[in-house]
Amino acid sequence: MLTCQKHLFSLPDDVHYLNCATMAPNMKSVEAAAIQGVLRKSRPFELTQESWFEEKPTLKRLFTELIQGADSERVALIPAVSYGMSTVAKNVGKKKKELRGREILLIQDEFPSDVYPWEELCADEGFRIKTVAPPEGTTDRGKRWNGRVLEAINADTALVVLPHCHWTDGTRFDLAAISKRAKEAGALFAVDGTQSVGAHPINIQEIEPDALICAGYKTMMGPYSLGLAWYGEFFDDGTPIEENWINREGSQNFRTLTQYRERRAKGFRYSVGEASNFILVPALIKALEQLLAWMPEAVQEYTGALIAEPLRVLQEKGYWVEHSDWRGNHLFGLTALPGVDIAALQQKLIERKIYVSLRGNSIRVAPSVYNDANDMDAFVDALMK
Question: Which helix (H) or strand (E) covers residue 237, if one does?
């Protein structure tokens, strides 16, 4: 089994950082790659026209391997989830006009970047948002919420937008089952993998979504402001949300850039302008190389062993956590005990240098491979007193 990897990070020994769902700390290798990228721009005379193209294929290949895909040309470099989801919004009604006027299915309390892109679509093209709330009570909550999503998908559904793991409490959704139901209803399926890709196995060929959108700075342990998106066949020959020079055929030859091309370059259609980022791209490459060396299955195994006894103790105390069948080991929510002052609890944790997030009435805990038993013991001790 994977052992604690804290030596690969620069975390202080007295800090208990259990908050990868907000932002992963940089690995030393990621930090070094970014610094080297900064220094590279100090010597721009060493850059050639090939420099703008040489690293992106590597990044796309690594991401494709991480999601168990088969075609890296379907991967785009994006600055944020909102950019990737806005690309979906740009094409839904435009490419498939019969979907207009139908429902976009979301879950309650979804992250804003998975909600806002559809507002203009609803206003301009008549789509309607339908939100699936979680069930009341805690018994089989994750299972019943998944059931509600499946029941809500019908002939009036145009698009289903879901995370793999809910950002507030880690509830996991059965992507394969939901994708199958969406296809039966003639609906598209877009997944936000930001809180799971890299820390939880995902097989894009089994799930078969139409889009998988991921920010790079959480479970993929990369830099902020660079993410990755995978687009399926529906988006072939679609319309990007911006037009930039590097996304057109022939861009590799700088001498002929003013011979404006109509055709978009294969594999770059949906990438953001200035995607040849000499700082962020090599940093994310280093992160993905390390994730593939660990493998998401091993991350789940390690975090599962790490949290097993602490969760048993906390559940005996009265805290509730979703059954392991419907959450990941790397992200879960604890329901605060009745009468607990959430603000006071947060302050107590900070004073003890314990870093988690509070989302509503949920204590969101997101451990990773840099955490050890000391981190979990400190967290449990703070909640037990």
Answer: none
The token pair at 49 is 């026209």
Secondary structure (DSSP) of 153-194: --TTEEEEEEESB-TTT-BB--HHHHHHHHHHTT-EEEEE-T
Which residues on neighbouring strands pair with residue 213, listed in sequence order?
192, 229
Residue 228, Cβ density class (10 Å: 0-12 exposed, 13-18 middle, ≥19 buried): buried
Count the neighbouring beta carbons within 10 Å of the beta carbon of residue 14. 9
d(CA 164, CA 173): 5
Residue 289 in tokens = 């190389």
Residue with tokens 């939100």: 131
pLDDT in tens, 312-325: 999 999 999 999 99
- Residue spans of the chain under pLDDT 50: none
Q: For residues 166 and 332, what is the distance between their CA atoms, to the nearest angstrom?
A: 9
Sign of CA dihedral 242, 247, 248, 253: positive
Pairing between β-strand 157-163 and β-strand 103-107 as defined by DSSP bridges = parallel
